């Protein structure tokens, strides 16, 4: 669906031979050289630029030159129309900070390229950046492609030139790093960035542009292009299985629900990790309707589903072999048609547990509960991770800067927190416990779907989910604050961030079995 045609590849001639729109050299703060084997001419240029005192290589600093207008010696003439020096900032001791510096520089380059309407851009990789070549290429590629993201599916271009605001072709020059390593990092970065941009596209789509059926169709499409296996449970199948949560939420909608299943199984002996993502393609609140101001934002209530479906796609494309992964996306709208769920109604979830509906706007937990119970029974996973734009309360607590993490397993929480820190998507753990769980005791059913007050809203929502995971190690990521308007960065604009995709892939790629970890 991702509607951009952007490519990235290795450039194997000398940088000065590049005759495109923009030649870019990332530069470390106060380091005299370009930091790569970019050639004498570029180093000389940089030296002259530094002498002006206008550019030190500080974070986000840029300096643009037009080599055609400068009197450089013949023979070493740079063919590119423009040269951009861009600051990496001071080299940091922390490896995660350096990874982020490269992504940020990638985002800055994409922005600058957009400002001069460059279509072909070559970036020379910094050589001595204290990360291995694979990671340098990967992080920079992520930043470039994520920063280059635009969504203009519904905009009629006013003039031809309006359509040219993004780069069409990026090249990386290895700059003295091993070409094979750079190629590997570039490829992995590309797979990740494309997955994130696809998740952003899904989120940007309005409720009438991305429906439950679109999730099902997309899953079928990628299963044809990759090794993923796809199954979709339709309404009749869910009725047979007794999935009263998804069916209940769906009652007010004219569109049928879908439970989308994708499986990545490279090796029978692998542990299985189950991913579950909330695919609520529009949340009006149902009978307990949300206020109209800002209701349009509730098209992004499917970001958990988008993250999970694009993450498993990236896992398959990257050929991650050490884990089996199953993704479940319960998809429906939450509307208030005449058959809609009402406060006081009691539903029966998959597996038999009953729930009293206190608030029809607390629908995410209802659809996730069926998917969690079903996925755990069928796939017997070693761990379950669910992602959901579940509560407004997480925005009150953590703002738009940390994803809320709730888990019944310290090792799993740690692996996710580390993965999040590596990719620049920080997680913050919140507690669970009987004192919160008590808030969803019901007088008439096994549980109720909302507490009687709003206190600890993110935690009581997670307590609801916990009822359906039993002893299985489980982590819940509440991305309501980070899926949209996440901490603004050069490579993350306002709007949908695609958060969770890179965290999940990093976590799965370096998965340490929870069972062996326990034995230690
Ligand atoms: N989709 C919302 C949560 C949400 C709020 C996501 C703001 C993104 C931004 C969820 O379905 C919801 O409405 N939750 C209620 C739960 C309450 C009724 C117990 C909430 O957070 O207010
Ligand atoms: Zn809701
Ligand atoms: Zn919702």
Q: Indicate the overall shape.
A: elongated
Q: Could you tell me the number of beta strands?
A: 18
Helix content: 25-40%
Ligands present: ligand BES, zinc ion
Low-confidence spans: pLDDT under 50, at least 5 residues?
none
Termini distance? 45 Å
For the largest beta-sheet, the strand count, sense and barrel status come to: 9 strands, mixed
- What is the overall number of helices? 15
Structural class: alpha/beta
On the 0 to 100 scale, the average pLDDT is 95
Beta-strand content: 15-25%
Tell me the Rg in angstroms: 24 Å
What attributes characterize this protein structure?
single chain; 6-stranded mixed β-sheet; alpha/beta; elongated; binds ligand BES; 520 residues
Architecture blueprint of SSEs:
Elements: E1 7-10, E2 22-28, H1 40-52, E3 62-65, E4 82-89, H2 95-115, E5 120-124, H3 133-147, E6 169-173, H4 179-204, H5 212-225, E7 229-233, H6 235-241, H7 244-250, E8 258-264, E9 272-277, E10 279-283, H8 303-317, E11 324-334, E12 346-348, E13 354-356, H9 364-379, E14 383-388, H10 393-398, E15 403-407, H11 410-423, E16 427-429, H12 434-437, E17 447-448, H13 457-466, E18 474-478, H14 501-509, H15 514-519
Helix pairs in contact: 2-3, 3-4, 4-8, 7-9, 8-14, 9-13, 11-14
The protein binds ligand BES and zinc ion (ZN) (2 copies).
One zinc ion is lined by residues 283, 285, 334, 361, 363.
3D structure, described in words:
This protein is of the alpha/beta class and 520 residues long. The chain is 35% helix and 18% strand. The strands form three sheets. Strands 7, 8, 9, 10, 11, 14, 15, 16 and 18 form a nine-stranded mixed beta sheet that branches. α11 (410-423) links the parallel β15 (403-407) and β16 (427-429). The chain is elongated. The protein starts with 6 loop residues before the first strand and ends with a helix. The mean pLDDT is 95. The structure holds ligand BES and zinc ion (ZN) (2 copies). One zinc ion binds at residues 283, 285, 334, 361, 363.
């Amino acid at each position: 669906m991702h509607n951009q045609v952007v490519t990235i590849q290795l450039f194997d001639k000398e940088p000065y031979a590049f005759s495109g729109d923009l030649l870019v050299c990332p530069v470390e703060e106060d380091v005299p050289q370009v930091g790569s084997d970019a050639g004498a001419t570029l180093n000389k240029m940089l030296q002259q630029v530094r002498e002006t005192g206008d550019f030190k290589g500080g974070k986000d600093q840029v300096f643009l030159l037009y080599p055609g207008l400068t009197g450089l010696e013949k023979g070493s003439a740079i063919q590119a129309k423009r040269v951009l020096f861009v600051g990496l900032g001071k080299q940091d001791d922390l490896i995660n900070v350096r990874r982020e510096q490269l992504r940020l520089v990638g985002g800055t380059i994409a922005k600058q390229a957009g400002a001069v309407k460059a279509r072909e851009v070559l970036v020379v990789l910094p050589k001595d950046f204290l990360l291995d070549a694979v990671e340098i290429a990967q992080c920079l590629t992520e930043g470039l492609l994520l920063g280059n993201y635009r969504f203009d599916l519904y905009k009629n271009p006013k003039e031809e030139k309006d359509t040219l605001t993004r780069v069409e072709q990026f090249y990386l020059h290895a700059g003295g790093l091993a070409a094979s390593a750079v190629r590997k990092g570039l490829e992995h970065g590309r797979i990740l960035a494309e997955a994130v941009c696809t998740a952003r596209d899904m989120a940007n789509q309005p409720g009438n542009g991305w429906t439950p059926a679109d999730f099902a169709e997309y899953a079928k499409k990628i299963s044809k292009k990759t090794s993923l296996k796809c199954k979709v449970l339709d309404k009749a199948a869910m009725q047979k299985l007794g999935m009263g949560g998804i069916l209940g939420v769906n009652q007010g909608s004219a569109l049928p629900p879908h439970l989308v299943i994708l499986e990545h199984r490279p090796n029978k002996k692998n542990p299985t990790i189950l991913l579950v993502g909330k695919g609520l393609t529009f949340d009006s609140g149902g009978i307990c309707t949300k206020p109209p101001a800002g209701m349009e934002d509730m098209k992004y209530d499917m970001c958990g589903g988008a993250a999970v479906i694009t993450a498993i796609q990236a896992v398959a494309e990257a050929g991650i072999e050490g884990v089996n992964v199953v993704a479940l996306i319960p998809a429906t709208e939450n509307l208030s048609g005449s058959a809609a769920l009402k406060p006081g109604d009691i539903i029966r979830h998959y597996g038999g547990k009953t729930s009293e509906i206190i608030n029809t706007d607390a629908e995410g937990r209802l659809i996730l509960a069926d998917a969690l119970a079903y996925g755990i029974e069928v796939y017997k996973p070693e761990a379950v991770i669910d992602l959901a734009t579940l509560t407004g309360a997480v925005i009150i607590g953590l703002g738009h800067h940390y994803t809320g993490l709730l888990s019944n397993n310290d090792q799993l929480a740690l692996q996710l927190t580390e993965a999040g820190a590596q990719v620049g998507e920080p997680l913050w753990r919140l507690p669970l416990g009987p004192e919160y769980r008590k808030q969803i005791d019901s007088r008439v059913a096994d549980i109720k779907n909302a507490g009687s007050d709003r206190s600890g809203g993110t935690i009581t929502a997670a307590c609801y989910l916990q009822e359906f995971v039993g002893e299985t190690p489980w982590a819940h990521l509440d991305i309501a604050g980070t899926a949209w308007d996440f901490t603004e960065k050069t490579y993350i604009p306002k709007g949908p961030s695609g958060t969770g995709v890179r965290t999940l892939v990093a976590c799965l790629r370096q998965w340490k079995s929870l069972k062996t970890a326990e034995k230690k």
